[in-house]
């Protein structure tokens, strides 16, 4: 493998990475990239490894010696500090991060996103190890513009909705809106990491992902996850499409999101990892401002793309409206709009996303169809009564 160069033309030394939550959606793509394109070693920590099993087995894989899986729960495992000490860099991805949990399991959500991350920050700080911590775009909460009258022309002014790392406020709902338990826990861990940097010299980078989507995201209920489970929107809508049922639009599907392809986003993470001088001390939005849709538009586009890739006709009535109380339960609330400002990541790392929403849905839904269509079909065949 040729020596890799950083953005300033210096050779990149191979490093050992302690990746916590490596078995999840983002972790699996990051491990894949690191094994295929870099000489770096990964200590992959997670409770599960299904999504990275293809990288671990068989032993004869070309990168076999560079990835090691450690099955552990960071809540209570004394091996954590030793593994962080063995690495040059720690990346923390571990979290409860599905909105259906935020208002129904707020304690687990707060513990997972704040309390459980504390030892990771402490061990990095005490052992002078660099930390890349995964936060979320949800720390911005609602836009300033959402509080203006519906017909205010200022709502069209980017100053009232574009989300900037260094100037936008974090605007959450009231405490009884438990949806914000996740965002608030993420915000506090960001503040703690920032303070460790300021007071104790911790070398850190904070990543705020804006709806990264692609293959292996979450699960299909009843196939590789619980039947009653509610994953994030990509998997919810994929599940509806695979089962030929209408896509459920929460509160009319009026909320807006920008979606970025996981493979584009992973490029940004690799730049952060390999360019510490440019990434340390920074908070980065990572998203695609050009891929904005309402959730209703997303449902329509996914229906069209799925028809193309599966060859199956769309339903006569492709969507139905459902209230957030019915879908998520008491205490749900929503972010109205999420457009990332790209100035900082552009300036520091020269990164820009490439993939259009249509293209990323086409490759992702091709994967969903190939991976799940047969299993879903089988699960839907009802046993004949004797
Ligand atoms: N995917 C996105 O678009 C997105 C958006 C915003 C923020 N994020 C953040 O990025 C990170 C990764 O997200 P993801 O989409 O890959 O989620 P994911 O749920 O697929 O991955 C998280 C992984 O962490 C593991 N984990 C959780 N608690 C653990 C514990 N106590 N011990 C060991 N492992 C544990 C889980 O088993 C899982 O494999 C999260 O911190 C999330 O908040 C992701
Ligand atoms: O069947 C469904 C499922 C969801 N919705 C609505 O879609 C919007 C997006 O939902 P989702 O992707 O599940 O989650 P959010 O974008 O709200 O939050 C995530 O953002 C980043 C992250 O931090 C981690 O991924 C997480 O908190 C939303 O408006 C739902 O109501 C739907 O209509 N139908």
From TrEMBL:
Alphabetical list of Gene3D superfamilies matching this protein: NAD(P)-binding Rossmann-like Domain
Known cofactor(s): NAD(+)
CDD domains: Arna_like_SDR_e
Entry's Gene Ontology cellular component terms: cytoplasm
Biological process terms in GO annotation: cell wall organization; UDP-D-apiose biosynthetic process
Keyword Signal: no
Similarity comment: family membership: Belongs to the NAD(P)-dependent epimerase/dehydratase family.
PANTHER family: BIFUNCTIONAL POLYMYXIN RESISTANCE PROTEIN ARNA (PTHR43245), UDP-D-APIOSE_UDP-D-XYLOSE SYNTHASE 2 (PTHR43245:SF13)
Protein's UniProt name: UDP-glucuronate decarboxylase
Species of the source: Durio zibethinus (Durian)
């Amino acid at each position: 493998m040729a020596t890799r160069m950083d953005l300033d033309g210096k050779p990149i030394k191979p490093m050992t990475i302690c990746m916590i939550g490596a078995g999840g959606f983002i972790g699996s793509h990051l491990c894949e990239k690191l094994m295929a394109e870099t000489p770096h070693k990964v200590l992959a920590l997670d409770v599960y490894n299904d999504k990275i099993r293809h990288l671990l087995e068989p032993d004869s894989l070309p990168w076999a010696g560079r990835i090691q899986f450690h099955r552990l729960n960071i809540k209570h495992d004394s091996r954590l500090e030793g593994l962080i000490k063995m690495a040059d860099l720690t990346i923390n991805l571990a979290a409860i991060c599905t909105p259906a949990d935020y208002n129904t399991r707020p304690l687990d959500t707060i513990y997972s996103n704040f309390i459980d991350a504390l030892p990771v920050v402490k061990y990095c700080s005490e052992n002078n190890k660099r930390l890349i911590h995964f936060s979320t775009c949800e720390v911005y909460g609602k836009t300033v513009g959402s509080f203006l009258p519906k017909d205010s022309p200022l709502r069209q002014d980017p100053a009232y909705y574009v989300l900037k790392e260094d100037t936008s406020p974090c605007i959450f709902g009231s405490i009884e809106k438990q949806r914000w338990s996740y965002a608030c826990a993420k915000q506090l861990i960001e503040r703690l990491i920032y303070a460790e940097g300021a007071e104790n010299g911790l070398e850190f980078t904070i990543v705020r992902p804006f709806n990264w989507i692609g293959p292996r995201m979450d699960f299909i209920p009843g196939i590789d996850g619980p039947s009653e489970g509610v994953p994030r929107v990509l998997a919810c809508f994929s599940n509806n499409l695979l089962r030929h049922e209408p896509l459920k639009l929460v509160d009319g599907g009026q909320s807006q999101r920008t979606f970025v392809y996981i493979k584009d986003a992973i490029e940004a993470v690799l730049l952060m990892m390999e360019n510490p001088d440019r990434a340390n001390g920074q908070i980065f939005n990572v998203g695609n401002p050009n891929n904005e849709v309402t959730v209703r538009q997303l449902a329509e586009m996914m229906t069209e793309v799925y028809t193309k890739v599966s060859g199956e006709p769309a339903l006569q009535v492709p969507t139905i409206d459902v209230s957030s109380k019915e879908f998520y339960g008491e205490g749900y609330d929503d972010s109205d709009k999420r457009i990332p400002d790209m100035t900082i990541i552009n300036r520091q790392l020269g990164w820009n996303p490439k993939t259009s929403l249509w293209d990323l849905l086409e490759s992702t839904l091709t994967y969903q169809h190939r991976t799940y269509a047969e299993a879903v079909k089988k699960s839907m065949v009802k046993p004949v009564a004797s």
